[in-house]
Specification:
Elements (H helix, E strand, L loop, with lengths): L1 E4 L2 E4 L9 E4 L2 E13 L2 H16 L5 E9 L4 E7 L7 H10 L15 H10 L2 H11 L4 E8 L15 E10 H16 L9 E3 L7 E3 L1
Length: about 210
């Protein structure tokens, strides 16, 4: 885990004490890492965003999800950018929910945090790791939150200067576990809250009648 302020890195614990990938039944499961970089201005934050997304497009990093947010001491006020794709910012905002719990019920993130992704991230990051990410988040009003499929080096090495604080930590959750959690949360969102809203189908015994699916 690395925590940096004023462009100076302080290693608080050894990065990735376990390998960044595990092998289960012959399949390599890549573990994830998270990086939070805070900024004093939106222009600096957008430069950081462009650098990370361009590195992802060039396959220099493997970005699972990311969001660029504006926040205060209470909650997330605005999402300026989010990563397109299957996750669509849901993983990054769930991580923000762990770092700033009030964001789950108020502000720009409220209602958009999936329960399964939240549980997967909570199980994958230790308390000290979340504390380090939270300290970086609190260091400026704008923050870039990225979740990566880890490689051998910390993802902060790809971040341009301009941040006021930055933390990058490894996790035990795998990319495939997060993908599955996103998928299940999306299925939950697609289900109607009221069973009466489920579409009906013709009754096989009485074609002129319908029955719930």
């Amino acid at each position: 885990m690395w925590v940096m302020r004023g462009h100076l890195a302080i290693r608080t614990v050894r990065w990735a004490p376990t390998p960044s990938a595990t092998v289960t039944s012959g399949v390599v499961l890549t573990r994830c890492s998270a990086t939070v970089a805070s900024y004093r201005s939106l222009s600096s934050a957008l430069e950081g965003w462009d650098a990370v997304t361009e590195a992802n497009a060039a396959r220099e990093v493997r970005l699972i999800d990311a969001a660029l947010v504006e926040h205060d001491v209470d909650t997330i006020r605005r999402i300026h950018r989010h990563q397109p794709g299957p996750a669509g910012g849901s993983v990054a905002t769930a991580l923000l929910g762990l770092l700033e719990p009030t964001a789950i019920v108020t502000g720009a993130v409220a209602g958009g945090v999936g329960g399964r992704v939240l549980v997967a991230l909570h199980a994958g990051f230790g308390r000290d790791d979340l504390g380090a990410l939270g300290q970086a988040l609190d260091a400026g009003p704008f923050a870039l939150v990225g979740v990566f499929a880890s490689d051998e080096s910390p993802e902060w090495a790809r971040m341009p200067l301009g941040w006021s604080a930055l933390a990058s930590v490894a996790s035990t959750v795998t990319a495939s576990e997060l993908d599955r959690a996103v998928e299940l949360d999306q299925l939950d969102d697609a289900m109607p809250d009221d069973p009466d809203d489920l579409p009906s189908r013709p009754s096989p015994n009485h074609p002129d009648r319908t029955e719930p699916r």
